[in-house]
Amino acid sequence: MSLYSSQIKTFKSAEPKTLGAIEILIGMFTVILSSIVHKLHYHIQREIIILIVNGAQLVITGVVLVYTGRRPSKCLVLTTTVLQLLTAVFDVVGFGLIARYVPFRGESYFYRDTEFLANGILVTLIGFLVLACIIGLLVSFFGAYALSVSSIKEVTPIPHSTANQHYGDGGQTQNKIYAGN
């Protein structure tokens, strides 16, 4: 199924290709920074694994969003909307799991050297998660709005129809109708 031009214009007004590229970059940085924190502090392993999965999901949804921005269809816009909502949910979960470790405090002397680095990375990850959540909600809003845009604007008259002969002729026909001609 294809979209009407007004629906495509509405969806493309969100700049899906740009937002998808930003999501891909955020996902790659999330995976890299999460693996660094995992190597530094192995005791927060479950939370870091969730962040790595979230980063991989951001890369996948970013790729789907870029492709949808290039060739929008109803199926792709709906898929993108659902994926972006799922990404926003994962971002909120990741934010909640990581926010409780900021500021990071090491349990032993070994961790004292890396507290500053870990705090910086965790705050950066939280910022990335908030930005990805905003992008996901924005894209899902524009996707839902594009799918719900009325297609009445795009309706064209049926060829060889006797009903509404003046439809689509413009102002000249309207003037004749009002003048009684």
Task: Describe the structure in your own words.
The protein is mostly helical. Helix content is 73%, strand content 0%. The protein contains 7 helices and no strands. Helix 2 packs antiparallel against helix 3, helix 3 runs antiparallel to helix 4 and helix 4 runs antiparallel to helix 6. The longest helix has 34 residues. The radius of gyration is 25 Å and the shape is elongated. The two termini are 42 Å apart. The model has no long low-confidence stretch (mean pLDDT 79).
Short précis:
This protein is mostly helical and 181 residues long. The chain is 73% helix and 0% strand. The mean pLDDT is 79.
Largest sheet features: none
The helix content, as a percent range, equals over 70%
Give the SSE order as H and E letters. HHHHHHH
Overall mean pLDDT:
79
Structural class: mainly alpha
Strand content: under 5%
> What is the terminal separation in angstroms?
42 Å
Rg calc: 25 Å
The residue ranges in which pLDDT falls below 50 over 5 or more consecutive positions are none
| Silhouette | elongated
What topology emerges from the helices and strands here?
Elements (H helix, E strand, L loop, with lengths): L4 H8 L3 H25 L4 H26 L3 H26 L9 H4 L2 H34 L22 H9 L2
Helix pairs in contact: 1-6, 2-3, 2-6, 3-4, 4-6
Keywords:
181 residues
